[in-house]
């Protein structure tokens, strides 16, 4: 279950940390959800003192495609839940109004949001030349967290070619984690943060559906860090001085369970429980957003319906099946955040700022003492 590619650092399960009860998918990643694709572009350039607008650069973009087809023509049900709204989530209002997403989801650094939005519009027009001429416009969905500690934010270095490259690279295979793509310049709990992912599969008699989560982790104080119920952060903070206590998180929840926006909003709310299990209190300055969608063909929404009525298959929300999906969301969110921390390497950014990697040997010893590890 540890298949990923970018760094030599392990994932949670590689050291015997099994969070929760439900089984994972084959990759333990958001791409275990049928049809979902993920791509990254990482931009690392320059060292030394900050030169506003020039560098050093520690930023990037991550894209999540709900399916491999034309998402504008074949939209997916979606919902966005705000845990704490100190953030900028492009496209939120239309998702709230219409209950669907009609293009790739992108994550990036805060001041890149406008440029990434423009790139998604340009890409969608290439795919659908009638946008804004013979049919409606397109609603880009872009989330962000701040990479200010390591990156020259004034340069807004993520451009159209970087977004297009991430889209071209998007695949259904293992997902790079840690300091990659939108996670390049991020911090979490005073350590290097970034991208993390995980998945869970519900019991066969309760649908056998998959829930996958991808996070852009950039939040929390060191003393708050909790791993599988162990207050690791309190012990680590006593040993080393912490850096930073602000930030945000973007959480993307995907499922192949046939749910419409109301049901997906219920899943999105449960992602906040998984976030809290890691120690987050959603600080005043934290932008904590959850974007949830269903890739199930049974609930796709055609851009141009053939008639006035659409018929959908939908999960019954009054029994054990929906509870199992709630549990899957909580567990996958918690583990995705821990994977983001485990996989991220130490990085030096602007002005010599150092984001230290989570000290895995020390963490492993603490978790072993608490009897949380099993191989």
Write up what this structure looks like.
The protein has helices spanning 92-98, 113-127, 160-169, 232-239, 261-277, 320-343, 360-369, and strands spanning 37-45, 57-65, 74-85, 100-101, 105-109, 141-145, 187-188, 191-192, 194-201, 210-218, 248-255, 287-294, 301-302, 347-348, 354-355. Strands 3, 4, 9, 10, 11, 12 and 13 form a 7-stranded mixed β-sheet that branches. It has a single domain, classed as 4-Layer Sandwich (L-amino peptidase D-ALA esterase/amidase), CATH 3.60.70.12. With 375 residues, the chain is an alpha+beta fold. Helix 2 packs across helix 3 (160-169) and helix 5 packs across helix 6. It is 24% helix and 23% strand. The model is unreliable at 1-5 (pLDDT under 50). It is globular and about 65 Å long. The protein contains 7 helices and 15 strands.
